[in-house]
Design a protein that fits this description.
By secondary structure, this protein is mainly beta. The protein has no helices and 41 strands. The strands form six sheets. The protein has a 21-stranded mixed sheet that branches. The protein starts with 5 loop residues before the first strand and ends with a strand.
Length: about 400
């Protein structure tokens, strides 16, 4: 148990020259009464290797700050009831009250009693990445299946703030919460918005973003009984080799008033989704109730190929969300079964979503499709109202 540290209001500050969790080890931060945020900085020159269990003995949010990189091994686990942030920023700022720096460590100011407001990147280490390979057991998901990877409490936020971010077979899970990935490749700041333990990033327009890659069946899941957002801000984003982003309403969950969260991908360069099992999905699953969320793509260029899919569909009772792709240059879909689609599936009741494409050019080759559809129920089942969405294409 890690105890002590400097308390400033609802914030607890910890400092380490090295911070690692070995395979099979358990490292927990004590959570004194009244503490809402725990900030742990690493002031040495080595990356942090989290290969065991990292936890908080309470409900506080946990921030791990190491400008030299953070690696989560295959057996890494989080036991964090609040939100969790891993960052390679040099410091975290607290409005006009000062900052908590890992690169120029000083004792935390008595004024650091408010919520954090910004990540400061002023000495970029180009070799400092955040890498997640975790596939460790992480309990049961809200629909009753097994979960694996890094998981925070349901309804909480899980943020990786780089530098480059690599997910090689690893998984991130924040059911009904928020997973956000993003980082910088040159000096600048990323804003942080805090609403309790709901955390969200803000990227100024003039910053140089870093690259993000999901490969080898990497997974990001927020699908549960409502809510659940995924946001990625990058220079270039790759989703490859059976990797998946998944939001929506989980199987057997929700009520008619339920609304799922959105998947929002923003890249100044290219977004590429490839391979037949790779995809971005925001679904109302079987036997579920409520309306699905949307998928928003905003990038310099966008390619979907080799059977990859963007999907907003309803298999339950509720409407599917929309797919909106806004690209400065080209949208390219290539290969059989490569599809952007929204459907009302057999057994589903509701409206399909719309597909909106805004780009300088659009290319569909070798059987790729844009599709909205309705799949009918069997002849022995009574028909219920279904409506397909529209496809809108604006090419400049």
């Amino acid at each position: 148990m890690i105890e002590g540290g400097a308390i400033r209001g609802v914030n607890l500050f910890q400092s380490f020259s090295e911070f690692n969790v070995g395979d099979g080890e358990r490292v927990y931060f004590a959570n004194p009464a009244g503490i809402e945020n725990i900030f742990s900085r690493v002031t040495g020159q080595n990356s942090s290797r989290i290969f065991g269990i990292l936890g908080v003995n309470g409900n506080a949010n946990l921030f791990l700050i190491n400008p030299n990189g953070i690696i989560f091994g295959q057996n890494a686990r989080l036991d964090v009831a609040g939100s969790f942030v891993a960052t390679t920023a040099n410091a975290i700022g607290f409005g006009q009250n000062g900052f908590f720096s890992a690169s120029s460590p000083q004792a935390p100011s008595p004024l650091l009693t408010v919520n954090p407001s910004v990540f400061l990147f002023n000495q970029i280490n180009q070799n400092a990445t955040i890498q997640n390979n975790s596939v460790a057991p992480a309990g049961r998901n809200p629909s009753g299946g097994d979960a694996f990877g890094l998981r925070v409490g349901d309804g909480k936020s899980l943020l990786l703030v780089g530098g480059n971010i690599l997910m090689d077979g690893g998984a991130l899970r924040a059911y009904s919460g928020r997973v956000e990935l993003g980082g910088l490749a040159a000096p600048g700041n990323i804003n942080l918005f805090v609403d309790g333990d709901n955390l969200r990033l803000g990227f100024p327009e003039n910053v140089t973003r870093a690259d993000i890659s999901l490969s080898d069946r990497a997974r990001v899941y927020v699908q549960a009984a409502g809510g659940g957002d995924i946001a990625i801000n990058a220079r270039n984003l790759e989703i490859l080799e059976g990797s998946e982003l998944s939001a929506g309403i989980g199987q057997g969950l929700g009520i008619p008033e339920t609304v799922a969260g959105d998947i929002t991908l923003n890249a100044t360069g290219e977004i590429k989704v490839a391979d037949s099992e790779s995809g971005i999905r925001n679904l109302v699953r079987e036997d579920s109730k409520g309306n699905g969320g949307n998928i928003f793509i905003d990038s310099g260029s966008f390619s979907l190929r080799d059977g990859a899919r963007l999907v907003t569909s309803t298999l339950g009772r509720g409407n599917a969300g929309n797919v909106t792709v806004t690209v400065k240059d080209a949208v390219s879909l290539l290969g059989g079964q490569t599809t952007i689609f929204s459907s009302v599936e057999a057994g589903g009741v509701g409206k399909g979503g719309n597909i909106n494409i805004n780009a300088a050019s659009l290319s569909l080759k070798d059987g790729a499709q844009l599709l909205t559809s309705i799949r009918e129920t069997s002849e022995n089942q009574p028909a219920e109202p279904k409506n397909a969405g529209d496809v809108s294409i604006r090419v400049k």
